[in-house]
Amino acid sequence: RIERYLRVLAFLASQAQGSRLSEEQCQALEAALDYFRVAAPLHTLDEEKSLFPRMRTHQNPEPTGQLERLEADHQSTETAHREVDAIGRRWLAEGSLPDEAVRRLSLILDNLQAIYQAHIHQEDNEVFPLAAKSLEPSELGALGREMAIRRGLDPDHLLRQWPSNPK
């Protein structure tokens, strides 16, 4: 979803110069901005408050540098997303953007796409597989519960809804 919403924002920015947003474009822009305002911080919390501390307790030196790099990415993307949100909200309010704002938005989005490409690759190919190998099932279960609660979901209800013997 991160990559999809970044592509939406980049596409809209590429269409922005000298034209007003259509209703459909406004909806797409608002949906992408809302995603990064709500879901992206939850993902960061999932990692920094739930996953990474558990991985660090296993005293495996392998992931330490990786986790620090991912945390640094979180800080830089958070700053960038605040600026994207400010530009995007201005765009929604005014219907169009000056060329300077469009160029700045495009630059930030290009940077975010590069950061996320490396970030997601590192998560999917290194950190998450290591977590799956090193964390106990009870730790993974607690991690899932914390993630559900963070999203306002009842983890016990989710477990009751999950088929006990999926085929």
Question: What are the main properties of this structure?
Answer:
single chain; 167 residues; mainly alpha
Describe the overall structure.
With 167 residues, this protein is mainly α. It is 81% helix and 0% strand. The protein contains 6 helices and no strands. It has helices spanning 2-14, 23-57, 64-94, 99-134, 137-150, 155-161. The longest helix has 36 residues, at 99-134. The chain is elongated, with a radius of gyration of 19 Å. The chain starts with a helix and ends in a 6-residue tail after the last helix. The model has no long low-confidence stretch (mean pLDDT 88).
Q: In terms of topology, how is this protein built?
A:
Layout: H1 2-14, H2 23-57, H3 64-94, H4 99-134, H5 137-150, H6 155-161
Derived structural class: mainly alpha
Taken as a percent bin, the fraction of beta residues is under 5%
Unreliable stretches (pLDDT < 50, length at least 5) are: none
Main sheet characteristics: none
Order of secondary-structure elements: HHHHHH
Query: How many E strands?
Result: 0
**Annotation field: number of helices:** 6
- Percent of residues in helices: over 70%
The general outline is elongated
Mean pLDDT across residues? 88
Query: Radius of gyration from the CA trace?
Result: 19 Å
| CA-CA gap between termini | 27 Å
Write a brief caption for the model.
The mean pLDDT is 88. It contains six helices and no strands. The protein is elongated.
